Each structure stands twice: as structure tokens, then as C-alpha cells.
Amino acid sequence: MAAAAPESLAANGLSGWVSEPNLGVLSTTVGTEADAAALATALVERRLAACVHLQSIRSVYAWQGQVQQDAEWALRIKLAPHQLARAVTWLRAHHPYQTPELLWQRCDGAGEDYSRWVADPFTPPPAPLPTPSPAPSPAPD
After folding, report:
1. Please, what sign has the CA dihedral across residues 37, 38, 44, 48?
2. What is the pTM of this model?
3. pLDDT digits (tens, 9 = 90+) for 16-73
4. 3-state class percentages of the chain: helix first, strand second, coil last, to nearest 5
5. What residues contact 32, with CB distance under 8 A and at least 6 apart?
6. How many beta carbons lie within 10 A of that of residue 47, not counting itself?
7. Residue 76, Cα to own-chain centre: how many angstroms?
8. Under a CB-based contact definition with an 8 Å cutoff, are residues 9 and 106 in contact?
9. CATH code, 18-119
10. Nearest-angstrom CA–CA distance, 85 and 5
């Protein structure tokens, strides 16, 4: 069964859903957990990404005329399109691979709050409204 398209989710009353949000996922892979963690931390610290998911994977690929199989680490880098050029430039300069995988996927839909956070993750959320103090009880007669 096919998943519902984002626009049909919004049309069917899914509140807080944004069609064509201002965010996407940049993907890459590296050979070690240490490299993955270092790239992820640096991307977030440099404000080039809002979030990076790291996952251990197994890759089968052709390289220099041979079929290769390796354990790798996948990075799913969540960012806004205005961050993409800087993130790709930084990754090209710091990636340990000679030919790094750099794949951009724009999201078709996302939660409204999440989309807003990805666009500007370092802006603190608004402070909650103070809870009003209970009204004093009337004095007994």
C-alpha cells in the first residue's frame, strides 16, 4: 500500500503539516563511527545543520572496477536549503573519502514545528507564558 502524499495528509485534516517545507536531507557516508561523529558534531557546531542522524550500514558498491563491500556509517543531515551550499563546501573540504557521497533530497512535507526548527535551530523557542496565580479566596464572614 502506497503512503499518502503530503498534500493529501494536509487535505485530510492533519494539523501542523506543511507541504513543501523549507528543509531537506543531505546524505553522506564514512568508514568509521569516529569520522561520522566528528563530521556530525562539526556540522551542527558550525550551524551548517540542525541535526545529523548516524547509522551503521553495510554498503555494496563498484569502485575502481571492483565490487566492494564495507561497513560504513550513514549520515542523514537535516538542514534548510539556505545552508546547503555552505554545508556541501565544508563537507568536500573535510570528508575523509576521495569521492564522497553527497545527495540532497528536498522534503515534500514535514511537521510545521519541526520545519520551523530546522530552518533556525539555534533560536530558542518562545518562553512559556507564566501560569497565572490563583485568585485569593474571599475571607470567611
Report:
1. negative
2. 0.76
3. 777 777 889 999 999 999 999 999 999 999 999 999 999 999 999 999 999 999 999 9
4. 30, 30, 40
5. 73
6. 14
7. 7
8. no
9. 3.30.70.120
10. 28
Closest listed residue to residue 71, CA positions, set 27, 26, 33: 33
Element (H, E) at 8: helix 6-11
Question: What are the structural domain ranges in the chain?
Answer: 18-119
Confidence grade of residue 101 (pLDDT, cut at 50, 70, 90): very high
Give long-range contacts, CB 8 A cutoff, 24+ apart: 56-65.
57/29, 59/29
CB contact at 8 A, 81 and 22: yes
pLDDT at 131 over 90: no
Q: Strand 51-63 vs strand 24-30: parallel, antiparallel, or unpaired?
A: unpaired
